[in-house]
């Protein structure tokens, strides 16, 4: 009789930034299928999700991949439910209105590899600072790239797990890196991003390196912050062929700036200053190929005849991809763009 290790992963109720939690469930003769993952429970009073007198919270499995670092292991992403089966208030995944997977998301997850010994990024001396940013972006060599062995191990683990990680690169600041995750379906994009974060945190245990997800861990110094740019499309954006439609969807974001910023990560005012490739947090603007805009219209979208995607550059590195996706989906749908099929052209037009 074989025994499988199912690592149930969920988000706790800490504020303003939720943390990852996990525990292992042993299942005999497990099929490897999501539908055969049983519901489970945990002590919500230890995770800021329930009072001690009524502490049970439920774990609902929603996504499963192989665990690349454990024999007979699986990683199981879970939603947190109240004891009555309703979605817990900390459950950002339940806010996503994309049951038909029409929305595709690509998250560009930036982060700092952080030394607990110096309380600084890898590559920073104990006292003082390294050379100003410039040579570190997409760099190579021991003088510029710090922590590559850990980053490469993380990439291999993600790919071995079956996650759709599309690339990695060293970022603008010393010790700063990025990975990109893409999925067809807003919920799965969040699932994959969270499991990729989980693997990075767990691999850091081996190296004695922590992951700093804060959007501006170096404060007001002249170093880039960390973002989680959200590239998104739906069937309208992928097929419309209309600049006017793109602009109408972008304009739908203008009156709900505050609602987006509320779920785009804590302390974002420190990052969205109008400098370091950001738009100011109080502004809203969009433009073609503009990395200083709130929403960038990629040049590839224009070159394809206004068929492609948009990039919201405001979410920061500590944001919950579930909540980011949920808010973007809601705003895009609010544009109420409708389509008709022109029989003569046999394509969707605005």
TrEMBL record:
<protein>
    <recommendedName>
        <fullName>Glutamine synthetase</fullName>
        <ecNumber>6.3.1.2</ecNumber>
    </recommendedName>
</protein>
<comment type="similarity">
    <text>Belongs to the glutamine synthetase family.</text>
</comment>
<dbReference type="InterPro" id="IPR027303">
    <property type="entry name" value="Gln_synth_gly_rich_site"/>
</dbReference>
<dbReference type="Pfam" id="PF03951">
    <property type="entry name" value="Gln-synt_N"/>
</dbReference>
<keyword id="KW-0963">Cytoplasm</keyword>
<comment type="function">
    <text>Catalyzes the ATP-dependent biosynthesis of glutamine from glutamate and ammonia.</text>
</comment>
<dbReference type="GO" id="GO:0006542">
    <property type="term" value="P:glutamine biosynthetic process"/>
</dbReference>
<keyword id="KW-0436">Ligase</keyword>
<keyword id="KW-0067">ATP-binding</keyword>
<dbReference type="InterPro" id="IPR008146">
    <property type="entry name" value="Gln_synth_cat_dom"/>
</dbReference>
<keyword id="KW-0547">Nucleotide-binding</keyword>
<dbReference type="GO" id="GO:0005737">
    <property type="term" value="C:cytoplasm"/>
</dbReference>
<comment type="subunit">
    <text>Homooctamer and homotetramer.</text>
</comment>
<dbReference type="InterPro" id="IPR014746">
    <property type="entry name" value="Gln_synth/guanido_kin_cat_dom"/>
</dbReference>
<dbReference type="InterPro" id="IPR027302">
    <property type="entry name" value="Gln_synth_N_conserv_site"/>
</dbReference>
<feature type="domain" description="GS beta-grasp">
    <location>
        <begin position="4"/>
        <end position="85"/>
    </location>
</feature>
<dbReference type="InterPro" id="IPR008147">
    <property type="entry name" value="Gln_synt_N"/>
</dbReference>
<dbReference type="InterPro" id="IPR036651">
    <property type="entry name" value="Gln_synt_N_sf"/>
</dbReference>
<dbReference type="GO" id="GO:0005524">
    <property type="term" value="F:ATP binding"/>
</dbReference>
<dbReference type="InterPro" id="IPR050292">
    <property type="entry name" value="Glutamine_Synthetase"/>
</dbReference>
<feature type="domain" description="GS catalytic">
    <location>
        <begin position="83"/>
        <end position="350"/>
    </location>
</feature>
<dbReference type="Pfam" id="PF00120">
    <property type="entry name" value="Gln-synt_C"/>
</dbReference>
<dbReference type="GO" id="GO:0004356">
    <property type="term" value="F:glutamine synthetase activity"/>
</dbReference>
């Amino acid at each position: 009789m074989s025994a499988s290790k199912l690592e149930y992963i969920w988000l706790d109720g800490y504020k303003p930034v939720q943390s990852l939690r996990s525990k292992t469930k042993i299942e005999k003769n497990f099929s490897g299928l999501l539908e055969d993952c049983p519901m489970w429970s945990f002590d919500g009073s230890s995770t800021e999700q329930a009072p001690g007198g009524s502490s049970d919270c439920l774990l609902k499995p929603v996504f499963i991949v192989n665990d690349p670092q454990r024999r007979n292991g699986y990683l199981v992403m879970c939603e947190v439910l109240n004891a009555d089966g309703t979605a817990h208030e900390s459950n950002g995944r339940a806010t996503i209105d994309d049951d038909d997977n029409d929305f595709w998301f690509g998250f560009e997850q930036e982060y700092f590899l952080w030394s607990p010994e110096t309380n600084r990024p890898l590559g920073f001396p104990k006292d003082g600072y390294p050379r100003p940013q410039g040579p570190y972006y997409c760099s190579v060599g021991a003088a510029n790239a710090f922590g590559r062995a850990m980053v490469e191990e993380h990439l291999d683990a993600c790919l071995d797990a079956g996650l759709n990680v599309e690339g990695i690169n060293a970022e603008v600041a010393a010790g700063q890196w990025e990975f990109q995750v893409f999925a067809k379906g807003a919920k799965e994009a969040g699932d994959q991003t969270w499991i990729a974060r989980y693997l990075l945190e767990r691999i850091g245990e081996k190296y004695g390196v922590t992951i700093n997800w804060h959007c501006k861990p170096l404060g007001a110094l002249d170093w880039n912050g960390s973002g989680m740019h959200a590239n998104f499309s739906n069937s309208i954006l992928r097929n419309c062929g209309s600049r006017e439609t793109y602009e109408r969807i972008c304009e739908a974001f203008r009156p709900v700036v505050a609602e987006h910023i509320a779920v785009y990560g804590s302390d974002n005012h420190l990052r969205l200053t109008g400098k370091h490739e950001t738009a100011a947090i109080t502004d809203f603007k969009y433009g073609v190929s503009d990395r200083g805009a709130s929403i960038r219209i990629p040049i590839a979208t224009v070159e394809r005849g206004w068929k492609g995607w948009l990039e919201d550059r405001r979410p920061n590195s500590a944001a919950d991809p579930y909540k980011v996706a949920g808010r973007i989906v809601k705003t895009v749908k609010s544009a109420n763009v409708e389509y008709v099929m022109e029989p003569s052209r046999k394509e969707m037009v605005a």
